[in-house]
# Entry
Amino acid sequence: MVVMAGASIYAGMDEHERKVVIEFMHLLEKSKQLFNGLRDLPQHGHKQWQSYFGRTFDIYTKLWKFQQQHRQVLDAKYGLKRWQIGEIASKIGQLYYHYYLRTSETNYLNEAYSFYAAIRGRQYYSRAAKENRPDLMVKKLRYYARFIVVCLLLKRMKLVRELVLELDKQIVDYTSTYEPDDQLEWSLVLEEIKSFIKADGIVNVIHADSNTVVLSHRLGPLTTPPCEKTTMMNLVLQEIIIIGNCNDQVKFSELTMDMFRMLQTLEREPQDEFNHIYDSSPAPGRSSFDKYSMPGKMPHENGDGSTMTGRPLRRENPHKYLLYKPTFSQVIMFLSSGFKELPLNGAMLLYLSADGCFPTTKHPQDYGYDLGGVQTSCKKEDIIHSKKTLQLKEMHCMYPGDLYPFTRKPFFVIVDSDNSFAFQHIPQYFNQPLVILMSPQELPMKFQDHHHNGSLFTLFLHSPLTAFCYICSVPTIPIHQWERCQSFIDRFVTEASRLFSHSRIDPAYLQFFGDDFLRLLLLRYVFCDVVLHLHRSFKASSLRPRCQPPLPEGDLLDHPSLTHLVYDLAAHLDVRNHFMDTSQGTD
# Structure
């Protein structure tokens, strides 16, 4: 049945049936209006958008429950089709995904997964091709792309590969049937996904049967580094800005590989029935889709940090913004918003993964602006142009001086760029804790061809053992050996944490050290520095990371106990020949 405007659509209905159809149409129209209004909400801040999201969830809850309760009438009298039910479920999945993006709470990712998986499992879009509507096929393709993003973030790689094959087939059907104008765009989307998956598997961990093991690298009870807490360790990471603009790096859905890895590093493993270390499929009948049959209610937050029910609102993860190729004004706006939202004893982290913007003068006088910075929103040809012309400063370059105002509060900065060292001179004008971790500015020649797979420095911060295997040319490792090697990493982290607490170290480090995420990043930085210092391929100073304030060498970075643990790990992997023998001096 085709629904037409006017009173004729109610012909042949009794009073009850007419009320059901009218109420359904009202809820459907209202849900569309609210959903479309989401794009107009401010992307920054915490409270401006929450009430609108709450209203949107409420209407979709009513709509979903209503169509379930009155399915027989809607099928017979309204002509409700399965793809229309799928579209409602897809919108609910999108709501949960965007709520995850705004709150950084990974449990909402699982909710999005439940609805997307149910659409596939119940084949709501299976007859879309028979409708002879190209717009409906596009909705189906977009659903696949969104589902793949959610599965990538949840590390459900087996399902990702299945979805990619299905998407490939759907794109072929769509383009061969309709010969659309966006044929090339969908082909590029598919290639982006395939390249992204390939780059993410830079080191393969395998079972005894040679099947790949997919590991989660979010923070969990077993990966939280130990710490001897002191009263000085009083800061908590609250706000995160992640910026990505590496033109040669693989990306998918406005997530570069570096952004993808860092956002997982700064999240806790979901502590619910979906919690998993290895890739797995959900048990039948246990999804939120089946359990609740409608989207879960979102917590409405009061100004005092409690929910409307009076319970405290507990945040598992720091709040973060993901910015892909942002303009300068956008960067400043989000930094200002994060700065404004910081509570007492809160710290802000800025992660910059971007191509370098190089000096415009041969004799720098102002370390804030004369050493260049990183490009946040610029095409590669513009970067090449800026290298050749020593006249104008680039408008969309993030200079060290641009960050000075934000050092009024505790600030933790990570710069992964070929011009990262430009940020080592940021002064502490306001005597607030300030730490800057900077990537190596160059890579040895044999690793440069793989830079599009993601930065080595970020890989060390995300998965130290993966990075170690990569620079030692270990592309495949059995799971039992991986777990044994991971025990060496754990011992290194435990020892480095002990040395951190007992070294003569800048107080800023100790103030950040009490936070689980920042402690993890600092200790993985130490591992990166020690490993690269000992590796034969990373002798030049530009091939090693830097930090500001400098960490002590004798008490920490060159400490024999850490050196020996790196050598033990190398020996276990049978890659000791990649490392110098410090007992005989450098070679």
